[in-house]
Amino acid sequence: MGRLFWKFFLSILLAQVTATIGIGGTFWLKERAMRLQQAQDIDSSPPAQSAIDAAAATLQFGGADALRQFLDQMQRHRVMAVDESGHDILQREVKAALLLQARHLLGQPDKQRVVREVSAADGHRYLLFLPFSEHFRRFFPGGMVPPLADGKPNPAPGPAYDGARPPAMRGLPPVPIYSPFRSVIPIVGATLASLLFAFLLAWYFSRPIRELRQAFEAASGGDLAPRFGPPGKHSDELQALGYDFDRMTGRLRSLMDGQTRLLHDVSHELRSPLARLQAAIGLAHQQPDKMAASMERIERESVRMDKLVGELLTLSRLEAGALHAMGEDISIADLIDEISGDARFEAASRTIAIGVAGEADVTVAGHADLLGRAVENVVRNAIKHSPEGGAVELEVGVQDHGQSVRIAVLDRGPGVAQADLKAIFQPFFRAANTEKTEGHGLGLAIARHVVQVHRGTISAHNRDGGGLCVEILLPLKQD
């Protein structure tokens, strides 16, 4: 278990225990307040009303002395009789809150038999009521029973009472005996449940993070194998993070493989002109009379290597994001006119016709030199693979309701195998049927990166009847 697990565990546990103690404490305080309130409330049950009626009749017809004797002999119902000065007739203690509540209930019509004010023959007026706890504490012989109002302990049920419940409470469930531990049990149970759930949640969150850490350690050691599957229907953000890590390592693995392959291809491409350079230099040393031909060969191979290095630098800068589309306004019509004119000059030696179909007097935003080089690479690739006396067509038109422009380059060459249509845009890729064609396989790769820099797309498909169509879609500049 790492530190993160314990941080999750203790944080969740602290939050849940705090909530449990807060809720439990609230209920405990509420229950305690209710018990205290019940100890001061006035009983309104039918037996209590009967006791009040009996005490009132005794006071009216027998006077204060008869009431004292009557109340002193009562065991079941200890009715309070309070005079105008707030003193009980039996000199029992009367709580101010209880007396205030009794006087408040005196004026309520539905409490006429609960609290009564009776005048005695001696002129004094007595307030008669029965405290709630005085009646019910006989049902708690083994529990926490408060003392009587006069300070004496609660008497045990006598023969007249005999443990029987009042008629109004017969048939009801037994009154539970209060215990101070009953309020603690829910808190302890909730704390144990919080402990369990905190452990499960901490383990649930820390496990994928621990697996991610192990995956990072493996990746730092060169192991880029996938470790997490794709996220499922009910996956969470941590599982999605693992899948993103797999995609990242997959991309790194692809880049490393591409780098290795690029080094291999560059070495292969440079080996041939270097070998020819060495041969030309050796021939010049051995046959001075052929120095001019050897120098011409050396110059040609040097230009070829310079071109290869230039294309590699351009490609590497595009892949690294060092070249960005500038905010130039590029006229597609002017761009196509310039490229088609250069293409006609290059294709004239092989009698290949260059045609332009469609019009697109529109503007795109970007880098004019880069975009022109990308389209030129596609056109020159089409010329290179076209047969003698063939034709290359450029189609231009606006699409997507004026949102983009389409530039298509079509030839009647050998085409490309269906499985290689996407691979032709990779560096140094040479299709099986074009291995003898001159070139390094970088032109279409550069074109793909340039089009992507301009937020466009490039794709290829074989034409019906033979040949290849390379299609470029570029977003138009919005006013």
UniProtKB/TrEMBL annotation:
Stretches that traverse the bilayer: 6-29, 184-205
Keywords of this entry: Kinase, Membrane, Phosphoprotein, Transferase, Transmembrane, Transmembrane helix, Two-component regulatory system
PROSITE patterns reported in the protein's UniProt record: HAMP, HIS_KIN
Subcellular localization: Membrane
EC number: 2.7.13.3
A Pfam family of this chain: HAMP
Origin superkingdom: Bacteria
Chief site of localization: membrane
Record domain Histidine kinase: where: 265-478
Domain HAMP: from-to ranges: 203-257
Membrane topology: Multi-pass membrane protein
One term under GO cellular component: plasma membrane
GO molecular-function terms, A-Z: phosphorelay sensor kinase activity
Annotated protein name in UniProt: histidine kinase
Organism in which the protein naturally occurs: Janthinobacterium agaricidamnosum NBRC 102515 = DSM 9628
